[in-house]
Amino acid sequence: MESCNCIEPQWPADELLMKYQYISDFFIALAYFSIPLELIYFVKKSAVFPYRWVLVQFGAFIVLCGATHLINLWTFNMHSRTVAVVMTTAKVLTAAVSCLTALMLVHIIPDLLSVKTRELFLKHKAAQLDREMGLIRTQEETGRHVRMLTHEIRSTLDRHTILKTTLVELGRTLALEECALWMPTRTGLELQLSYTLHHQNPVGFTVPIQLPVINQVFSTNRAVKISPNCPVARLRPLAGKYMPGEVVAVRVPLLHLSNFQINDWPELSTKRYALMVLMLPSDSARQWHVHELELVEVVADQVAVALSHAAILEESMRARDLLMEQNVALDLARREAETAIRARNDFLAVMNHEMRTPMHAIIALSSLLQETDLTSEQRLMVETILKSSNLLAMLINDVLDLSRLEDGSLQLDLGTFNLHSAFREVLKLIKPIASVKKLSITLSLAPDLPEYAVGDEKRLMQIILNIVGNAVKFSKEGSISITAFVAKSESLRDYRGPDFFPMSSENHFYMHVQVKDSGSGVSPHDIPKLFTRFAQTYSVATRNSGGSGLGLAICKRFVNLMEGHIWIESEGLSKGCTAIFIVKLGIPERSNDSMLSFAPKMPANHVQSNFSGLKVLVMDENGVSRTATKGLLMHLGCDVTTVTSGEECLRVVSYEHKVVFMDVYMPGIDGYEVAMRIHEKFTKWHERPLIVALTGNTDRVTKENCLQVGMDGVIFKPVSVDKMRSILSQLLEHRVLFEA
Predict the structure, then answer these.
(1) Are 675 and 711 a contacting pair, CB within 8 Å?
(2) Residues whose CB falls within 8 Å of the CB of residue 632, separated by 6 or more in sequence, listed in order
(3) Of the residues 95, 287, 633, 725, which has the fewest C-beta atoms closer than 10 A?
(4) Which of 317, 410, 357, 320 is nearest to 699 (CA)?
């Protein structure tokens, strides 16, 4: 008994696993050979293969086979029982999938073949039914097609359009392969191919009009079937062994065709016929039906009527079409102009409000920071920020001015001003920048130059500042000289330009200003480009000086508004430059006239430096702008209260407040309505606080609206400490302040 126990197998379960593997390998091999044979048979018997999921299942079968053989790699050497179990499981799954696929295909293939047979039978029946229904629909729609074709042909009075439309509509309605129109020539002895549906044959090909087939067609008003091989029917070259389709021809009466010329043909006043040829598709069993021939005959008659009408009304229609084109062009130009104006106005609004508001914060806070205790390095940084901010504000003003100059909405603000002070003010503004570059600036005002003049001080200073600023910007060393004198009548003749015609008068004079620098100079051929927007033609070495390219363009527009002339002289690069302009200024009635427009600057002895205890209310939706304005006022000693809406402003404002600064464009109740309600709340004017609009909108409409609602002033952002100090001084002294 013990010896029998010794020869018993050590792993009886392993032998059972091996048996399962052998059985699985047998079924896998069987499926390998059976499934491809079944698929080949199916593809051979069926022209289509819609069951793509069969391929997916077959792919799964292949993947399992591959996985099985991959796992089998671990069985060649000593392996664990786990590997054997995994291998057995994979083979069992592969056997199951392969057998399932083979059995499924055995049942599906006959069904697919039977479905295909029924499908072909149903398609044949459906096609036959469609043909019968198509014939019925075609017969029922013949009348509708006639009306439609007639409408299309009669919808225009242009003879060429009538004939072309006839071919196109007939070709579409009757599904023609080709359709052509033959017209009589000058002599009347030939027919010329004038129009074709697909332009296969060159227009101008002619055939004799005495051909028997043509006489046959012309002799009746019916559509006549003709041979596809006759000369008028050879409209398309035959390709391969295709049989030509049936061809019919019908005559088209040409009635009263005065001035009707096709391809420079002469006038035709006698009754003639054109020939219309229609061809069915090649290699087709289709034939002409009676209702189709009737349709062709009716269309030919309608074409004749339309051509007779067109011959009479052609000139009037041509004039009408020309007038309509002009009206359409004018209307389009008007809409484009209105769109451009709206776009420009939107742009100006954004530039005014959205850009001036952050600039107000930058300049206000920088000017506050400048008045604190700073190191020399910090002060230089703050001054740089202020200068850059002022340049950006100047650029915004330049863009707005240029836009208004282009549409003619900008007008000069004429008034009496101190001309000498204007030059000295420009010199005071530009000297700090020039001193950094160690440039010397000299100002020479001629003794005959009047001290006071009538003109637009702001625009004149802008011209001078732009020109002198360019001289400083493009000069690395040397000097800059500013000279101004009254231009004599004799010298004005030498300066006559294409748009400059000076006229002498006792009420005005022409001022000649010359700015000469020792800078980089300009190439002579680039000088005409200097007054173009965004043009910078200076040398490469000076391009890092920056600039927007708007200054001189705006200066030229301002000079033109002042009935003057501006030009630049230079001998070349690195030889300096001289900018010269002449403007027309008025002579005031009294030299001591002081009708000066407001500018936010006052002599030092007239400006109050501290406003301790002055209660001020600030209404602004923008938090940054509100904070900046509050900081400026508090720096000047004011007791400041801020609100963010019109409703809050009306609740807070009281008799203690002396000044109310408000932004006019607010959500809910805007600044205009707030101003009117403050007037209603404070009936006595001496008890009412001063209402001042502090806004980024510089347009004339904003100023007029502020005046209408009873505001006491309008101030435009940005505002610095010095400007706010001057504003408060002016307000408290005059109780009114409207910035130009």
Answers:
(1) yes
(2) 364, 367, 368, 719, 720, 721, 724
(3) 287
(4) 410
H-only helix segments in 513-589:
551-561
**Helical ranges in 450-508 per DSSP H:** 457-473, 489-492
d(CA 740, CA 414): 11
230 neighbors 305 (Cβ within 8 angstroms): no
CA gap 41, 490 in Å, rounded: 111
Which helix (H) or strand (E) segment holds residue 443: the answer is strand 440-445
Q: For 659-680, how does the pLDDT look when each residue is reduced to its tens digit (9 = 90+)?
A: 999 988 888 888 899 999 999 8
**Nearest 5 degrees, angle CA 341-CA 347-CA 350?**
145
User: By the 8 A CB rule, do 398 and 548 touch?
Assistant: yes
Sequence-ordered alpha helix ranges (H) in 351-418: 356-370, 376-407
Give bridge partners of residue 440 from the DSSP assignment: 479
Q: Report d(CA 176, CA 170) in Å as an integer.
A: 7
In the chain, what is the straight-line distance between the N-terminal and C-terminal CA atoms, in Å? Answer: 128
Q: What backbone torsions phi and psi does residue 476 show, to the nearest 5 degrees?
A: -90, -30
CATH superfamily of 154-235+242-316: GAF domain (3.30.450.40)
Q: Between residues 340 and 350, which one has the greater pLDDT?
A: 340
Domain 411-488+506-534+548-586 classification at class level = alpha beta
Q: What is the DSSP letter of 67?
A: H
Q: Which residues are annotated as a binding site for Cu cation?
A: 65, 69
Average pLDDT (612-616) is 89
Q: Among the CATH numbers 3.40.50.2300, 3.50.50.60, 1.10.260.40, 3.10.310.40, which is that of 615-739?
A: 3.40.50.2300
- Report whether 549 contacts 533 (CB < 8 A): yes
Helices and strands: H and E segment counts in the chain: 18, 19
Query: pLDDT for 35-48, tens place per residue?
Result: 656 665 665 665 55
Task: Find the helix packing angle between 376-407 and 551-561, rounded to 10°.
Answer: 50
- List the structure tokens of 314: 């052609």
Amino acid at 707: L
Which residue ranges make up the annotated binding site for ADP? 470-473, 517, 548, 552
- Going by the annotation, the residues of the binding site are 65, 69, 470-473, 517, 548, 552
Looking only at the bridges linking them, the beta strands covering 690-695 and 659-662 are: parallel
